[in-house]
């Protein structure tokens, strides 16, 4: 039930300038019984599908989906009629503060990218150390088994040698 709007380039992408729906693509389908309304929230991150009591009386309620097409919540409500997204509050920043943030966004982005890289390298180093430890444990276990097998093989050869000598002494003696 997710739609993808290609925006301003819809006419170029589909070759049709007259059809306003030409830029809409079906990405996924899902089922919501007797759905009456579908609406995105203002951020574009969430979608709601609703079954309203204005149209029918069975299984009224709403479902909220995220932009990755995952169902977040489903509410079946008797006599459900209306769903409204909570309005987004106005920003507390002045226009000048907003411009300043926009100017320094790349600078902050670089800082956060560096922090992410450091964290990733730390995680990678920890992962590499854990893998090395596991490999060392595995190699130690294999070496131990090889020693035990070699010792057991030596014991068997000695036992066979003694048994062979007894056989030869019994036959020859």
From TrEMBL:
Translation initiation factor beta propellor-like domain segment(s): 26-82
UniProt entry keywords in alphabetical sequence: Cytoplasm, Initiation factor, Protein biosynthesis, RNA-binding
Example GO molecular function: RNA binding
UniProt xrefs under Pfam families: eIF2A
Signal peptide: none
Transmembrane in keyword set: no
Region spans: Disordered: 1-23, 152-173
An example Gene Ontology CC term for this record: eukaryotic translation initiation factor 3 complex
Domain of life: Eukaryota
Compositionally biased region (Basic and acidic residues): 1-20
PANTHER family: EUKARYOTIC TRANSLATION INITIATION FACTOR 3 EIF3 -RELATED, EUKARYOTIC TRANSLATION INITIATION FACTOR 3 SUBUNIT B
Protein name in the entry: Translation initiation factor beta propellor-like domain-containing protein
């Amino acid at each position: 039930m997710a739609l993808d709007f290609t925006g301003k380039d819809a006419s170029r992408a589909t070759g049709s300038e007259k059809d306003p729906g030409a830029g809409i693509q079906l990405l996924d389908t899902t089922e919501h019984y007797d759905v009456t309304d579908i609406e995105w929230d203002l951020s574009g991150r969430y979608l709601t599908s609703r079954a309203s009591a204005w149209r029918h009386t069975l299984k009224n309620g709403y479902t909220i989906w995220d932009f990755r097409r995952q169902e977040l919540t489903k509410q079946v409500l008797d006599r459900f009629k209306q769903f409204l997204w909570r309005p987004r509050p106005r920003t507390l920043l002045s226009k000048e503060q907003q411009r300043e943030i926009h100017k320094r966004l790349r600078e902050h982005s670089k800082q956060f990218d560096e922090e992410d890289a450091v964290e990733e390298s730390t995680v990678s180093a920890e992962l590499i150390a854990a893998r090395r430890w596991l490999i060392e444990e595995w190699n130690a276990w294999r070496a131990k088994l090889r020693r035990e097998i070699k010792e057991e093989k030596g014991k068997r050869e000695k036992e066979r040698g003694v048994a062979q000598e007894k056989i030869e002494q019994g036959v020859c003696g």
